[in-house]
Amino acid sequence: MLRGPRVPGADPGTDRTGDARVPRVWRIRSHPAAREVLRRREGTTQAGFTAEAIPSGRLRRHPILLSDGPGHDAQRRAVGRFFSPQGIERSSAETMEREAVRLVGEAVREGGCDLGQLALLYSVAVSREIVGLTASPLEAMSRRLVRLQRQPDVDLTRPRWGRSLPQWALAAVRGLGPLAAFHLRDVRPAIRRRRRHPADDVISHLLDQGARGADILVECVTYASAGMITTREFLVMACWRLLDDEALRTEFLAGDREEKAAILREIIRLEPVVGHLYRRAREPFDVSGCPASADVRPGDLIDVHVRDANADAQVMGEDPLEIRPHRPLPRGVSPAGFSFGAGPHRCPGEHLAITESAVLLEHLLDAAPRLACAPEIAWDDVVAGYRLHGMRVEFPDRVA
């Protein structure tokens, strides 16, 4: 669906000023080199998702996606139970089924729907119960989460992220208003509710750990961006892929949950929602997995090209750009490639994203939709991923 990857490899980006003192940018495209960089527990820090723009002194604790070191590892262990297969089955299975039936049923009765909007409501409905953001109406909160994502372009390889002063002013205008609305209408009511009635969710856990309102707000924004919104994009992409390939769609509908998960992992390997993962070097090291020597030095930015690394034929085997569920892979290689990251910053929500996508797509495709309008493809530089807009499906064979 999207443009195919470049030939895997690794190359040093040239600094844009010609000044040798300016940190270099290393672009990693091979699977072994990407794995080596992402699995490093020492010597690099998170540089993507605006991590370097959040001042450490303003928050008592950095959100899990943006932190590093022992504190980050402790946070991951503490919240891991919410995203484990057992935790998801316990807390989310009923919600997934209920919301999929409700939303697909409404779309069928109306004769069609904007799939992006349906996928947004579904992914927010599932994830917000895990986080604890259940004190406000679903539709209104979903709209606020979308507004939070509307930011000017960024380029992490350039000074000041490549933004001019007017662009930074626009970012503030676009960001602060929706952030305040999200805090006042969604996060703060959820905190009040969980103070009175603790539950088995992330907000209750954070309150138990002594987190303040600002810390919980940033954590909720992180889960919204990294979980709810990205899942929405993947649901649209996966449905587009399945509607475009009758044989694959038939295989998906006939398969059990394990088979459906294998197909979805293969789709997200080829169409990663987050296309680049960034790390900042804090100490010198060599990347031995590169075809050419990469002598990384402190301050260098490392840009892992996920789409390219996921299509490295040396690891993925024959036809790396084709969808082949259950393709033979070397030991330790994820079927999804690096679409959920790797190492200390590997996304804890992989099982949730795949499971909830399988449930919705099963109900949606069983209703025999027809693609009425293909989506428009845009790019979000903040999360380094695609955005799909305007995909519409209709249900001509279903009687309301």
TrEMBL record:
<keyword id="KW-0479">Metal-binding</keyword>
<protein>
    <submittedName>
        <fullName>Cytochrome P450</fullName>
    </submittedName>
</protein>
<keyword id="KW-0560">Oxidoreductase</keyword>
<dbReference type="InterPro" id="IPR036396">
    <property type="entry name" value="Cyt_P450_sf"/>
</dbReference>
<dbReference type="InterPro" id="IPR017972">
    <property type="entry name" value="Cyt_P450_CS"/>
</dbReference>
<keyword id="KW-0408">Iron</keyword>
<dbReference type="InterPro" id="IPR001128">
    <property type="entry name" value="Cyt_P450"/>
</dbReference>
<comment type="similarity">
    <text>Belongs to the cytochrome P450 family.</text>
</comment>
<feature type="region of interest" description="Disordered">
    <location>
        <begin position="1"/>
        <end position="22"/>
    </location>
</feature>
<dbReference type="Pfam" id="PF00067">
    <property type="entry name" value="p450"/>
</dbReference>
<keyword id="KW-0349">Heme</keyword>
<keyword id="KW-0503">Monooxygenase</keyword>
<dbReference type="InterPro" id="IPR002397">
    <property type="entry name" value="Cyt_P450_B"/>
</dbReference>
<feature type="compositionally biased region" description="Basic and acidic residues">
    <location>
        <begin position="13"/>
        <end position="22"/>
    </location>
</feature>
